[in-house]
Amino acid sequence: MFETLTAAPPDKILNLSVLFRNDPRPEKMDLGVGVYKDSSGATVIMKAVREAEKRLYDSQTTKTYLGMGGDEGFNKAMLKLVFGADADFSRLFSAQTAGGTGALRTLAELLSKARPGVTVWLSDPTWANHAPILKAAGLRTASYPYFDVATGKVKFDEMIEGLKAAAQGDVILLHGCCHNPTGANLTLDQWEKVARLLVERDLFPFVDLAYQGFGDGLDTDAAPVRLLAKTVSEMAIATSCSKNFSVYRDRVGAMMLLCKDADSVKIAGSQALMATRVMYSMPPDHAAAAVRIILEDEALTANWRMELEEMRLRMLNLRKGFADALRRHSNSDRFDFIAEHRGMFSRLGITEAQVDRLREEFGIYMVGDSRFNVAGLKEDRLEDLAKAVVSVL
Description:
Layout: H1 12-21, E1 29-30, H2 47-59, H3 72-83, E2 92-98, H4 99-114, E3 119-124, H5 130-136, E4 140-145, E5 147-148, E6 153-154, H6 156-163, E7 171-175, H7 188-200, E8 204-209, H8 218-231, E9 235-240, E10 252-258, H9 262-279, H10 286-296, H11 298-330, H12 337-340, E11 345-347, H13 352-362, E12 364-365, E13 371-373, H14 382-391
Parallel strand pairs: 1-12, 3-4, 3-7, 7-8, 8-9
Antiparallel strand pairs: 2-10, 5-6, 9-10, 11-13
């Protein structure tokens, strides 16, 4: 049966974790895998999540199935978190998924069924898993210009021109906030121009909102999605709770649809649920229930928001501290963009050979394209890291 197969290449990011674990150097630094770490380097369970899990343990009386859409309370709470309490919920659909990746994959199946063979346009660069997920659902992919490595900024004019090459009905995948892997985001004014272009050229927006709350705050990070919802007639959104609730291994996300009317919600929603049925039938429940408990309880929500804000502010401080250290040691403003970017990731803009040197000579691990995890930085190691980076330039 399997004699025709060859071994799959190792995942570049996950393989970094293996190399890091096997590195005996005590001064080694892991800036690869995208998980939030506190100042001690630990990825802890948030206090609000821990309290919600205790309440769930005390109150849960059965482990029977909830259905293909998962926890309905969770779905409603997530819609409010993303679209705001004043949204037109008659046009919205949400279903719990197996992480943000599950949301992307399920929505890809839905788009493929709705418009077989449609092209999905991805930013250059984008998250490494976007194209494989879309292609697995039978969708074609193309790319539009996005990031200028030399300046660390968005190439917005080129982005707009690139999107004009998309055919009517094509899908445009957009990062809702905290662009992965660059950390370079559109301004709200730029989002308005993108929204107008989508309407003018009849393009379908597909928003990956994996990091809400990690950029400029929960509501500010959701502002682009809310702006689109007031402008376009239809769109799809994939959300994740992995980062902002720190429930990575429990795989909690949500797929969302904005439709033209309530009847369209019923039709599209039913097809989205059928896509989950043939892939994994139903999503895992535990952490989604914990998230629901948090979002339905005013005091727990306040505690969670406070914890999340502490995480966000720490990453901003790390960004500024690292940019300042690089400015001192390089005697240039080459890396100032790091302080301006948002979210968990940025790209240093150095070569793969230089990244290899950082790993081999200093035990500093980051992805080959120089994407590094801001939350993996340590306040007391910024000077060491800056010196190492400058030494390999």
